[in-house]
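User: Continuing from earlier, I have the next pair ready.

Assistant: Great, send them over.

User: Here they are, in order.

Assistant: Folding the first of the pair now:
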Amino acid sequence: MAARGGGEAVGTSGRARTWIAHRASQPRGGVRARGRRFEKSDREPGEGRRPGRQGRHASVRARPVVRACRRARGEAAGGLRAPRGGGSGARRYDGALGFHARADGPVRPRDRATEESSLSRLGGRRPLQRLRRLDRRPLAARPRAARQGRLGRRARRLRSGEHLSREPRDLAPLSRWTGAGSPLLDRRGAARGEERRRREGGVEGSGRTVDRRRRGAASNRFERRGALLAGALARAVGGREESGGRLSGAGGGRVDRPQRHARGLLREVRRAAIEDRPGRGGAVRARPRAARHEAAGAGAGGFCGRGEVERVSPGGAHHPGVREVKAALALAFGAVFALQAQDGFVLVKGGAVRGGAHRVDAFEILDHPVTNAEYKEFVDSTGHPAPPHWIRGKGEDQLPVTFVNRWDAAAYLRWRGAKEQRVYRLPTQLEFELAARGGVDGRAKYPWGDEPPAGRANFDETGTRSLGAWRRHVQPVKSYQPNALGLYDMAGNVWQMVDVNTDLETNRFVYRVVDPIERESSIAGGSWARGEYYLRCGVFGGAGPGIRHPDIGFRPVRAPLGAQHFREIPRALVALPAANGVLLSWQFFDRPETGYHVYRATRRDAAGDRLTREPVRQGTAYLDENPPRGRRLYYRVRGVVDGVEGPPSEWAGIDPGGAATGLAMKIEPSVERGGFTPVFGDLNGDQRLDVVLRLDNGIREMSRDPGVPVEVEAFTHYGRSLWRRPLVSHARCYGNANNVPVVVWDLDGDGKSEVIASLEEAGRLYLAILDGMTGEVRRKTPWTPMATDFAKSSTRIHMAIAYLNGRTPAIVTQTGLYENEILDAYDADLKKIWQFRSEAETSGSGSHHIDIADVDGDGRDEVFNGTTLLNYDGSMRWSIYRMHPDIVAIKHIVPGSKERQVFFAVETSTHAGAYLVEARTGRVLWKVNREDDPRWTHAHTGWVADIWEGSPGMEMLTNRDGHEAKDLVLFAADGTVLANPFPQGWRPVNWTGGATRELISADGKRLGRFDGKNVVPVLGMPNEGNGACSMVADLVGDYRDELICTGTTAQGRPALFVYTNTAPPARREMRRQENREYRLWIARNQGGGYGSYFEWEP
């Protein structure tokens, strides 16, 4: 309960605070100025005197002295002064509600800074009843226990600053939550911690010594409060606003709000600091009552009240008061709480393990396996199925949760990570081993040492226990002594799931890995049903990921505050054998000043050893010279800014010692006849581009029916087949596999791409969305039938992905090309958005691929139907009415122009020619066609790229003579002819990473540069194989292009080869996939229509 004009008493409830507000706004007539007991009517209903409170003034404010303190406090802060007496003009402060009020006036809010300053001088709302009992003897004359105080060694470490050197980087974010004005270190309820310390801890007073048993209990409370505060700090730093209520603490118990415990802990450490400030030769003296007002009015620190304690150095200098001590200890709080158990978690500093063979980064691990009580909170929150042995939806609270498998554990970890905005996962084998050994790389046999396990762990000593008798043998968590780190049950009771981060590239006996969890099976620590052997550190067992047993549980680990290494940032890292080592190449998408450290390991669950003394700043490549041989090596990189490392990349594995090669990917499809077309996309969510191959099975333009349909086969980026299925028969694709469009894109935002394709079922054609990992049909809708033009076998059914609303992907299909084409747009659920029927003056405008671009910069994509442009809503934006083009390229072609341009190479004989058009408006900038030059009969091939520094802007290539493609013309940006004829068989490629593009031959064997007249050869042979190259794109490694070729293996089987440049780049540029239009082009190129060249632009 609370007195009028006073603050909040110990244990004040919400109803009591409401009552305080009501009483504070009432006139005080008839109330005596001196302190008195409250009458029954003054108390909150149902509330009596607190047990154990003795004395006449046990529940009363000593009002005259308190008012004097407030008056002195007001003088020191330059604020209000309270008149003597308790008349109607007296102002009174209510700390719980944060206002000053007059009995005869309205409630007036106070300045927060003034309020905090005042309270720090007051030091609490019950100063006299406690301070009058303080031991007035000099500190040296007190008993030793009283000198040390209830915090003992923990407090001495805090005051000495010993802890500050442990993890300074990780603790930096805590300063805003532990400094002055912190939302967690609140000033309300200061009296409650003081009074509780008197009652529970046995702190010195009246010459009494401290009872050791009670001091030990108080120390346990300190640790618990520290854990609660650290948990609150973690959630606050993670961006989660704590809204009060109750919170699960260590062991699954229910506790009060963490803010309340935080304030209590602050007061305890503040108290310890005041009792033993620097200058230990000083003494404690009690100032007389008459002197306290003068000292408080002068702004002296400490408490205001009779018998106030003041620390005086031998020289007579006054030491800082509570306010200064609080500010000085702000960072110390963060250090202590981060290094102690944080809501049950213990920090394990990174270090070596297994005799220095491996290294582990720092992590926090729960000090016990997850209990039924903790797991029940997850089940209640998410509706996840409860373990089958629970009765009426719950199990015994303190037993470890069992009968859960890895998917159950993964769901729990995802829920907890989302709730607390931190990264949670299972520990790795090496992390568990390091934690079990107490955080050191020792040789102890068990987590507790080398002593026999009897009486130290719950295990099967006789070998007679049965899994069916689990109810008799499973014990509550923390039933045995912890190890040196304070971790319980690191051996015995229940197995605990751990990960090894399996290398899927080398994993054998695999059909299809949809989720990496499927290949994790390691368990650690032994159990109540197993013998002594499995209790040993570094010994692991195995259990399938779907197994639910009564002796298998789990405990999570999480990233320490401020740590970056629990999150991966994939960089398309590639490791290739070089002449004298291993060459690494990765993508750049960071700040310009970012450098990179390179790490190497022999296990994927290790942190790796750093190879670079200084960060790599020139380019994004590194050569590891003379690496160890004989076993597989793993590499990854971490960005470095201002000496601080960011998240690591994915691992890239390699078996060193092979012949130097630039082969980054090899895919071997099951092809019996015909060829295949690759389409790239991330199928498994690892942010590496996998590949989907459309297998024509001999169905090509002008082909006969081979009796088998067009098929599709999906592969991971390391060449493992995921699935294969038929798509469309010869009759339904008009005798041409190009009329079976296949596009790869993530439609639902889960990080895994779907395969969107035309699909024939029961003789009917559908637009279908297939699961990228399994090939199963997720959704389908009837494909719009072709209106006319059924006789040709030419390519005229296409597909693309566009962001029509600027936010979510849509599917755009085209049926028909040479006449009466129909374009449809669908959302990710295959609901039709719009349809455009090109049946009038725009009929026959379509191209051999649908091009997507945001031409007006509003974030919404427009759709090119060849020489006609459609708005995001399907309406026509403009058309040049020149019918069917074979080449469409939308780029910043003209130098100095803010607008984008479109280059058209038109096939239709009436309008055959080259056109440059302003993309936003459709205005023709220049043209040369059959009307200008009769040699233009069919523009069939071409591209746009910057291949020569001697011509500003980009250059454009096309031909006049159709499929023969001998009369090639190269144009400058202003329409000037730079070369005619241009040499045949060359296409642009960004192979060396220079300012202009090189040219590569169709077979990929020759590399050249245009010098203004001819193509000059350049040293290098990108294609190491024996086939042709159909596409260039930035797929892996740095920003330069890879070469995508088809050929045969040494065994004569057809295969897809992807080659990269193994020479380190001279500079670094942003990865091409940062551009959305570039990613959309990769997703549709060749699979959604004819292939093309995409000149990347920043």
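And the other member of the pair:
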Amino acid sequence: MKNPQTPPKNSPQGSSRQLTPQQQSALATDKNVSVTAGAGSGKTTILVERYLKIILEQRIDVRRVLAITFTEKAAAEMTERVSAMLRERLARETNPARRARLLELRERLNSAQISTIHAFCARILREFPVASGIDPDFSVLGEFQQELFASEAVDEIFGELDQQTLETPYSREEWKELLRQVPPALLKQALALALPHPYEMKLLRQRFAEQSDEQLLAKLQETFFQRLENALDTRSLPAAVLPLLAQIDAAAVSRANLTERGQQAFALIDDLLSLKTPETDPINFWQTCLDLSRLMVTSEGQPFKIPSGIGKKEDLGEAYGLVKQLSEAIHPLARFAAEGFSAVPGRVDRLGLQALRKILFLYEQVEARYREKKEERGMLDFEDLQWLALEMLQEHPAVRNTLRNRYRYIMVDEFQDTNDLQWDIISLLGEFEGELQPDKFFVVGDPKQSIYGFRNADVRVFQRVKEVFAEKHPDPAAYPGNVALEESFRFLPALNDFVNFLFGKILQKEPENPFAVGYERLSTRREVAEPGRIELALLHKDEIKNRPALSQEDYIARSIRDLLDNAGAEEGAKVYRRRQGREEPHPLRPGDVAVLIPRRTHLLELESKLREYNIPFKTVGGVGFYRRQEIFDVYHLLRLLDNPDDDLAFAAILRSPFAGISDPGLFHLALLKKPYQNYRQTLAKIEDFSPFPAPDRRQLPLFREQLSRWEQRRDRLSLSRLLGEIFDESFYRATLAAEWNGEQLLANLDKIVEMAREYEQSGFMSLGDFIDSLHQTITLDPREGEAQIALEDEGTVKIMTVHQAKGLEFPVVFCPYLQQTPRGESGKARFDSDAGLALKIRDPQNHYRETAPFLYEWIDDRQRQKQLAELRRLFYVSVTRARDRVYLVGSYAGSELERENCLAWAVRALGIDPAALTEDFIEIAGSLKIHLTLKFDALEDAAGEDARRGRPGGVFGEAGLQALEQTLTESLEASPGAVEGSPGAESEPLRLPVNLLAVKDRPKGVTFSATQLLTFQADPQNYFRRYHLGFFESDYEFLKQVSDAESMSLVKGKIVHKILEDGIPGSDAEMLARLEQCFFTYEIFDPGDQQTLKTEVPALLQPFAGSEFAQKIFSAGEWKTEITLTMRLVGDSFGEEDYLTGTLDRIFRNPAGEWEVADYKTNNITAAEVEETGQKYEMQMKTYALLLAQLFPDQPAYPVSLYFLLPEKEYQKVYSPAEVQEIYREFAGLVARIKEYYPFGEGLPGPAIAPTKKKVLIPKAK
């Protein structure tokens, strides 16, 4: 929680606030001022003091001062602080004239122009409706409505394009060719990326309108060569390489005996020698060099030590040593290619530009349709507010002059998080005859704290504006209006020194990265002698894997527990609070501690561990709002109210706190349903609830009565009011309030009610409309945070993201998961505010293989630069939230400390080698002590630990199941023959819970996979054990027996399939990018495993790329991937309908015009074993043929091919329609046999199925 800072000096007009000389200089009003405010330097104080100086000393009306803040909360806080300071001065002021002025200002403060940029834009659009062309009664779209409207607009335009009702300047064949190069899904993705950026897209469209493809291509080539010259010496490299090429060409080499890679390399050498010099044809020369460089290095990008990949020593002959020299000379170029620049802009980029022109046309149509949808409802989105305001200011000088004359001063807070569009709006309010007014602007922020790139913030704007302010000064570098606040009121001296030392090395300007910022050293104004504590926990992942109690979450929880347990001791942790102008030590409380996470990936594990250690906490924001259980509960409630026949929603509501029905109760209700249409009707007809479990007997009639009442009110009350009444009447709010995170859950309920209210106000009255939009939003799963909750309590530790902690400070801060790296961009489309829009293209001259143009690679590289620069700033923000103590926490393995992540930067900056450490601390910068934790002992006494953590010992595992079995057995033995319904039962029957009664009926509508059928065919008993009897603890022992090699083989197979979904990678860089994406998808984080896969997967796919099989499937004109099908099987003796499901990885139309199935196998076998191994996949191949026949029933044959990558052999079966019919009968027969022995396989021939000893079986009465 934010704590008061040391008061500054010398404030105007008798304030009790004191300002430092640096702060005083920031109050100047005779020049444009920019303030770079370091962490804890009193930025907000300066903003408020300057505002007061203007309205008090200069007697400017509050309506003539425009203050722009980053958030609505910040605007409210600034208004409140100004109001509080006016009240404070009023209480001390005795002069009647000055007192009257203060009273006047206090009364007029409600008309102060303090708001966000969006609120300001909305205000001026409403004020000038004629100039803006906007109905002043407009409302603003919510984020989820915006996404839905945009999605509808895209789908409608695509529908019109497909039906040929869309007027376009392009022929139908041109559109078909575009869709061959850019699949529809990718095209929609590109449009979805572009729609939220109307300002940037307008500039992009202007650029394409003003320049030809050749001019645009020339710009890309210019950019490429600039990047190349920044990366290496473009003069010396050819000078070193060309003579080597000539010598290699003159050497005696057995080219025919070289490897395929070697032959390609020598062909490229011939091409380069024919070009002679780079100046002859620079495009072809450097493209050929790039292609050659990738062949002349190892898979890790290093020069050859032994060039075995090119050829044997005896075949290379005299060129053997020269090839090694060439590899050494050209490997810098290979590194440049691996970093993302594998192609000189040329034919593929020209193809991409041609495609982009058509995409821009489609964008215009979609954007117009999206705008129509908003206009129909009188709505704008947040981007509309800004760019429409800018258009109005640019096109209407009268409006611009009115606003310029109205605002004497303009102040902008958090200026590091603005962008070009926002600065264009703000600057137009202070421009006169094309130049900024010299004394109108005040901007304040800290480039080191610019962490909102995902909201289009551009840290470069701050520096550019500083340069604009200073350009008329004789010495721009010494312009007095550019002020830096370098005195911090936040840190203890030791922590201040640590921040300076660490970030002085991490935050540095980089010529190659325009998004990187430098660091200005801070000095602290706190004079407390307490050293605080700085601790770095470096936890090795191998130890965490072997002993999970050594995880980061455990370290954090144990550290906090120790701090809290020892807080009252004399040597315990102390924090400092200001009282009567002095800082005094106080025992640490839970509210003094914050855990700042970079993202929510491990949030649930962290929360679980804090609960385990009995630490009270609040999570700010939590997991995604639309993924919370209470949101699903409300969604199902609304579905049920809208459609009483919705059994799924009804069952969900019965199990939720709205009804609270038990599983046995729900099961019994299902048994009673048969005569009725749905659960709702079933519940309405029940007269006797006595068969239900006791709690349900009371709850079901109550819920039935409540549901009837809610249905009656559904059409009479507004949705928001209806929800409020239901929450209260069902005690749903009270139930959630009793949960450990009840405050957050209640805030989420309030948020969904507010969403319903906004939905009604925007013109949507139908319950069905709201349900549809909520359903689509849940499906889209936007990154919507949970509702905000109060942070001021002192009794809970706070967990929040670093972004949520911006502007806050805490005595103790934990910064975990420092090893995390930025998430790579997903998808195949890229957008950049400067470079524009780019996407991968399927090249028609290369069998429509997917290729990344240079523009795509350039944008990718810019995104990496932005992300890494912002990650450094995010690290700075997280550490500088701490006042007294900071704990840096991360885990590592392998080469992780050599990569680009916060943990690696910290380790390198501090000069730490974990393997060489012998002490539990290091000293830097003289005497600054950094405590180190490399490992920590898990408490061994589990019972004692359970008691310490305040939770019951033991878990309900094997022992619990054995106890349940024993209890049931004893009950049955005490009343032999007394199971209800058994023959000869004389005594009162023992009523077993409904869920333990024997299941008598046969299941209907069961869906089977090929794997299930194959398992049953091979071992029926194993099938029932696996799919129906269930696995218990000992059943998972087999997983422990799987070798690392087998596990790696399974993973490798998944990755190969995933990579080949998108075709063969066109370059090493693309291969690496796809591998990295697979590592994230399949959670492969071990560096050793990653390195193994980076070696083995390309080794499998490179020969495959040149195979006839690959040429056949990837050169096909038509293909489909990842097709999941479910088909009906009617074949058992009861005529019941069952289903077969399966996924076709890839199908393509072969030259004979038939659709064919292709699958890849990574088995480690020889060519001689292909036939035998292929036969083992016969059931899978039959499934493929059967599903293919469902898609294309009129084909004369159904070919199915398996390609074994290691021996590079194809195994094919071609099934006739008659054989497909036989497969159908075979599968239907297998399903019928399975259902004969439902549900537990009783009566199967052969040895009885022996369930695990922990499986509860009810003995039959004798």
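Worth noting for the second one:
Residues 347-376 form the longest helix (30 residues). The mean pLDDT is 83.
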